[in-house]
Design brief:
This protein has about 500 residues and is of the alpha/beta class. It has three domains: about 80 residues, Up-down Bundle (Four Helix Bundle (Hemerythrin (Met), subunit A)); about 190 residues, P-loop containing nucleotide triphosphate hydrolases (Rossmann fold), CATH 3.40.50; about 160 residues, Orthogonal Bundle (434 Repressor (Amino-terminal Domain)), CATH 1.10.260. The chain has 22 helices and ten strands. The strands form two sheets. It has an eight-stranded mixed β-sheet, with helices on both faces. A two-stranded antiparallel ribbon has the order 9-10. A hairpin with a 2-residue loop joins strand 9 and strand 10. The two termini are about 40 Å apart.
């Protein structure tokens, strides 16, 4: 969503880095460019003006301080002020001293309330709680059925009946108390636009439940209209926080950058995809860093910790360095990686990656991963254990079983073999390592690459251990596996 704004900010900030001093005219030029970038992102005009005033006041006359030059200090100022506009600190939901903790969800139709209710219930389960869902949306056809389906998927009970929303909310709360549930999440009806009937119904449900948290679910793709809608709900319900949905969309993202500053309520959670797993606490500082092209390593680490079991990951790493890593191991790692989200979104969290690669969605072909999985699944256990046994007839069988071409089988096997060889060399103690050790002892230092992110050849793309992206390359990319859309390979790929 913020790729366009991030690209603009990177270009703007690049100009001020390295300057020995920033005079008023330099700051004004910088501020004018930031103004255009924010307005193009559909950020609310009042928010733009407030943010620019803060940056201007802090940036004029800034001079070298410690290890930072004025340009770097301005980058720090922009990061801090952007973080402040997004809410400053991460919202931490509190729990009632006497359970259950009641959470009320409100919002317009189409904002994703029902799916968000299930995502929020799953999040509470991850915190060690026992949530229950109440389906009080009796207006939209199949809303309750959708909630029940999602509840079954995450093993959370759902209460609802066909009386009226207020009675459902009251009975649902009593049911939760009887079952000993410590968190109750109530999904309410929405409308296509704000009207008095909607507000009256939600207000009556709120008066019945006396919620500890009232969250407004906001579609990030609605632009500045989301700010107007949030103000209307806040004046009637007294919101505690907001939940932003569809943050993975291709809109300009102005709502997320405007709503907290205008409404005065923090963003508590962000929904970044369609599945129930695509839901997380909203961290203002991390989003600000991503917008400024600094990546989001903390979220990347958290996702990895949630997805990869430590013991299994260590065992796989040991096999990789020992040269006994198999295609079964690789398939398990690939599936675990996909649970973290799309490959392009993961790459976007790596500092400097977006600026070097450009459009990550275009750089990575997710369908390529499907083909790799299909190829490996079409192999026998013996073939996955030792790809060297795959001869011509076996390749033809695998290609037919996976709906691919023989050249793709050749390329995957070759790249996997090169990757395994490279990783085994890294795990060994060859003469290169001894030379590096001697150089370090002599005071020459151990670093062999320049500080900062490694440069990426955009023609060759980028690679990770086992997951490379090498546009236009029929061979292995630094020991990785090609994830771009260049398959099936050309005539030379079927060696």
């Amino acid at each position: 969503m913020f790729e366009g704004l991030s690209s603009r900010f990177e270009g703007i900030l690049r100009k001020v880095r390295g300057k020995g001093r920033l005079g008023p005219e330099d700051v004004e030029e910088f501020v004018a460019e930031v103004r255009v970038a924010l307005l193009e992102a559909d950020v609310h005009l009042d928010v733009v003006q407030t943010l620019l005033d803060r940056i201007r006041d802090r940036a004029v006359g800034v001079e070298v301080a410690g290890a930072l030059n004025p340009g770097q200090i301005v980058v720090k100022i922009v990061l801090e002020e952007l973080t402040a506009v997004l809410g400053g600190e991460t919202f931490r939901p509190a729990y009632a001293s006497k359970p259950p903790t009641v959470v009320l969800l409100a919002g317009l139709q189409g904002s994703g309330k029902t799916t968000t209710a299930a995502k929020l219930a799953r999040w509470y389960k991850g915190q060690g709680r026992n949530p229950m869902l109440i389906g009080a949306d009796l207006e939209r056809p199949a809303a309750v059925a959708q909630l029940r389906t999602l509840g079954e998927r995450i093993s959370v009970p759902v209460f609802s009946d066909s009386t009226d929303p207020v009675a459902v909310a009251r009975a649902g709360l009593a049911e939760a108390v009887g079952l000993g549930r410590d968190v109750v999440i109530c999904d309410t009806a929405g409308r296509l636009a704000i009207d008095e009937d909607l507000m009256a119904e939600v207000a009556e449900i709120s008066a019945t439940l006396q919620p500890h948290h009232t969250f407004l679910v906001v579609d990030a793709m609605t632009g500045q209209d989301a700010v107007t809608m949030a103000e209307a709900f806040h004046s009637r319900l007294g919101l505690d926080a907001l939940i932003i949905t569809k943050l993975d969309g291709d809109a300009r993202g102005g709502a997320a950058l405007s709503i907290t500053e205008v409404v005065g309520r923090p963003i508590a959670f962000a929904s970044t995809g369609e599945t129930v797993e695509d839901f997380e606490l909203f961290h203002p500082d991390r989003l600000a860093g991503r917008i400024l092209g600094m990546g989001d390593v903390e979220t990347l680490i958290e996702k990895a910790e949630e997805t990869f079991a430590a013991e299994e990951a260590e065992a796989a790493a040991a096999r990789m360095l020992a040269g006994t890593f198999t295609l079964d191991d690789f398939l398990e790692q690939l599936r675990a990686l996909r649970k973290m989200g799309s490959i392009s979104s993961i790459m976007g969290m790596v500092p400097g990656m977006a600026s070097q690669v450009g459009d990550l969605d275009e750089a990575v072909d997710e369908r390529r991963i499907d083909r790799i999985e299909g190829i490996i699944n079409s192999m026998t256990p013996a073939e996955r254990l030792d790809p060297d046994v795959i001869d011509g007839s076996r390749r033809a069988r695998i290609a037919a079983g996976s709906g691919t071409q023989v050249g793709e089988i050749n390329q995957l096997v070759k790249q996997f073999r090169e990757m395994r060889k490279m990783m085994k060399q890294m795990g060994g103690r060859g003469p290169g390592r001894r030379k590096a050790g001697r150089a370090k002892k002599k005071g020459r230092g151990g670093r062999v690459t320049a500080a900062g992110p490694a440069p990426i050849d955009k023609k060759k793309g980028l690679s990770l251990p086992g997951l490379g992206m090498s546009p236009g390359d029929q061979g292995p990319s630094s020991g990785g596996l090609d994830l771009t859309g260049n398959w099936p390979p050309g005539p030379t790929g079927g060696r």
